[in-house]
Design a protein that fits this description.
The chain is α+β, with helices and mostly antiparallel strands and 132 residues long. Helices cover 43% and strands 23% of the residues. The structure holds zinc ion (ZN).
Length: 132
């Protein structure tokens, strides 16, 4: 349902873009063939731009957030705070107050006694998966 709404909104955006380009073209040239071509270009420009934005997003994030959602499901990747760096490992605390350690491809729960409990690991599809 949500996706359909977004798609519909995006379709309207394309129509608006096409209409605006049509109006500009009509003022510049006033020939209907140019107007149709311009409107078609205007229609596809938002599609091309959104495709480009998705590509850039994929390149920057690599299809996944840099940290998994926390154990309680409350905190997303940007809700963690860095506590300290230990060699190549990074200790985090999430908003619930739970501590975690990122070590290479693995994300551990960190207990108060310093013990690490496996939590998530980067799977073959470059996504966070349960580490059991
Ligand atoms: Zn949390």
């Amino acid at each position: 349902m949500n996706l359909n709404l977004i798609d519909f909104g995006f379709f309207l955006l394309c129509l608006c873009s096409a209409t605006m380009v049509w109006i500009v073209s009509n003022r510049l040239w006033g020939w209907w063939i140019y107007n149709v071509i311009a409107a078609l270009v205007g229609f596809f420009v938002p599609i091309a731009l959104s495709g480009l934005a998705l590509r850039i997003n994929d390149l920057v994030l690599g299809h996944r957030p840099p940290r998994p959602t926390c154990e309680h499901g409350n905190c997303k990747w940007n809700d963690y705070h860095v506590l300290k760096f230990v060699g190549d490992d990074v200790e985090f605390i999430c908003k619930c107050g739970k501590k975690y350690v990122r070590s290479g491809e693995r994300f551990f729960k960190l207990h108060d006694n310093g013990q690490r409990e496996p939590y998530k690991v980067l799977g073959p599809k470059n996504q966070w998966e349960d580490d059991q």
